[in-house]
Write a structure and sequence with these properties.
Blueprint (H helix, E strand, L loop, with lengths): L7 H9 L5 H19 L2 E4 L1 H16 L11 E5 L27 H8 L3 E6 L11 E2 L3 E2 L15 H8 L5 E6 L5 H7 L2 E4 L25 E6 L2 H12 L13 E4 L10 H16 L3 E3 L7 H19 L2 H4 L7 H8 L16 H23 L4 E5 L18 E4 L2 E4 L8 H5 L4 E8 L5 E8 L4 H15 L8
Parallel strand pairs: 2-3, 9-10, 9-11
Antiparallel strand pairs: 1-3, 4-5, 6-8, 7-8, 7-14, 11-15, 12-13, 14-15
Helix pairs in contact: 4-7, 5-6, 8-14, 9-12
Length: 475
């Protein structure tokens, strides 16, 4: 019978062949969650009545030979930053508890449900999705399946932990500061941050419920345990037919794994080079090059825009909780600085400031386009400067620090390597590149041309083929 670590595609094949029923597959995953919940705390809400009714409906339809959706009968959990009928999003904020259960599905959730996925649970997040760890005062802390003393990342940390633990075969996350890529990196799974604006954010919290607005930077995207499953969900969410995989032999990528402004641990740099070697063995040309945009030049306009977006998207009580940014913070952001200063900011950036940042970002986009026009199909680079770190919940985002090979650096440096794709609206696919010396997963990201997601899948699949991809944690 289908196991919890079968691919989503194998599960769907077994469902179609009637080797397992949708109800049985749902119960298998719910049972798995029950077995590991005490260790992980990944799933924080369930709606099994609706899920079991949906599974029965699909089983009955299949028994009668009805045409079914692409994901028919596949159980899924959803990040608690999305509204799901019966399970409205709280995003870790007490002010959003007690919302009416009959909320409308977020658009991406509706797409998965239209494909007849069985949505049965919600996964944990940080408060208002505002951290690179996943904990809040409502649901507590989510642990990393590979080492429960460490974070699974954030803000899609519960989603990544659930995938790695065999609780769900597919998930949907969101990303404005690496929130799809950090957890995939830390938990040994894969994710896609799509080109900005391709998938709808309607039904995502924040902003506050019933205060939807199209904002800059933020995206939603798929998560899975392997690249082919990720492509499956991506095609469901974008509503397109599957793009045929194309050979990578003869293509050309750039490797960016050094920058004076971006700290990087040696074992993470080694993972980037492992991935580059893997592509080289598949016939990909490797260039030791980077887009003509320095790390310091990226961070200034990115952080200023991020601050404005966070401020505009938060409810008043959260918005007012941030302290006014002081002169030193303003100087830090202007010079590209530590990244953490954004979380001491709410309302100091003027419209003119944001427009000026936008002008700089557009020039950087043009440079990135020109770089790809030179023949590079992607930039291979780190996701974060370190692998998953021990839970660190003391103080504010701006007050914390991390250790990078014995060097103490600001916590906000975790935003460095993800800034290229986010600030310049490019797609980025996080894929695994082996293990660090301490046994923790370590991944890399492939950043591509805007709307160039299909090529990233081809390249990521080549890395996965060479390096082995997902390895289940010893839970």
């Amino acid at each position: 019978m289908t196991g919890i670590y079968a691919t989503a595609r194998q599960m769907l094949s077994d469902l179609a062949a009637k080797k397992i029923s949708a109800r049985e597959l749902l119960d298998l995953h719910v049972t798995r969650n029950d077995a590991v919940h005490g260790k992980l705390n990944a799933v924080i809400e369930k709606d099994l009545d609706h899920a079991r009714a949906a599974a029965k409906s699909i089983d009955d339809a299949r028994a009668h030979g009805a045409k079914l959706g692409t994901l028919a009968g596949l159980p899924m959990t959803i990040k608690d930053g999305f509204d799901v009928f019966g399970m409205p999003a709280t995003s870790g904020a007490r002010g959003f508890t007690g919302r009416a259960k009959d909320c409308q599905d977020a658009d991406v959730v509706a797409a998965a449900r239209k494909a007849e996925a069985i949505i049965w649970g919600k996964t944990n997040v940080p408060y208002m999705l505002g951290d690179i760890q996943s904990y809040n005062e409502i649901y507590g802390t989510t642990n990393n399946p590979y080492d429960v003393t460490k974070t699974p990342g954030g803000s899609s940390g519960g989603a990544a932990a659930a995938l790695a633990a065999g609780i769900t075969p597919l998930e949907i996350g969101s990303d404005i500061g690496g929130s799809l890529r950090h957890p995939a990196n830390f938990c040994g799974v894969v994710s896609l941050k799509p080109t900005w604006g391709v998938l709808s954010l309607r039904g995502h919290i924040p902003p506050a419920p019933d205060e939807f607005i199209e904002t800059d930077l933020g995206v939603v995207g798929p998560m899975a345990r392997n690249v082919d499953d990720l492509r499956l969900l991506w095609n469901v969410l974008r509503g397109n037919e599957d793009a045929a995989e194309k050979p990578v032999k003869g293509s050309r990528i750039a490797v960016w794994d050094e920058d004076p402004a971006f700290p990087l641990a040696g074992e993470v740099q080694s993972a980037v080079r492992r991935a580059a070697d893997a592509l080289s063995r598949q016939g990909v040309g490797i260039g030791n090059a980077k887009p003509p945009v320095s790390g310091a030049d990226l961070m200034g306009p990115y952080m200023q825009t991020l601050a404005a977006v966070l401020g505009s998207g938060l409810p008043d009580d959260v918005y007012n909780a941030f302290a006014t940014m002081n002169a030193q913070d303003r100087k830090t952001i202007a010079e590209g600085g530590d990244g953490g200063a954004v979380f001491r900011l709410s309302s100091t950036a003027s419209y003119r400031d944001i427009m000026r940042a936008g002008v700089v970002r557009q020039k950087q986009k043009d440079k990135l386009d020109a770089f790809f026009d030179e023949g590079y199909e992607a930039v291979l680079m780190p996701v974060t400067p370190i692998t998953a770190f021990a839970h660190n919940q003391q103080g504010s985002f701006a007050d914390r620090v991390i250790d990078v090979d014995g060097r103490t650096v600001p916590y906000g440096a975790l935003l460095n390597w993800i800034s290229l794709a986010t600030s310049l609206h490019a797609p980025a696919l996080a894929v695994q590149a082996g293990r660090a010396a301490n046994g923790m997963p370590v991944g890399v990201q492939l950043v591509g041309r805007r709307n160039g997601e299909d090529r990233l899948f081809d390249l990521a699949r080549a890395i996965e083929r060479e390096l082995g991809g997902f390895e289940a944690p010893p839970l």
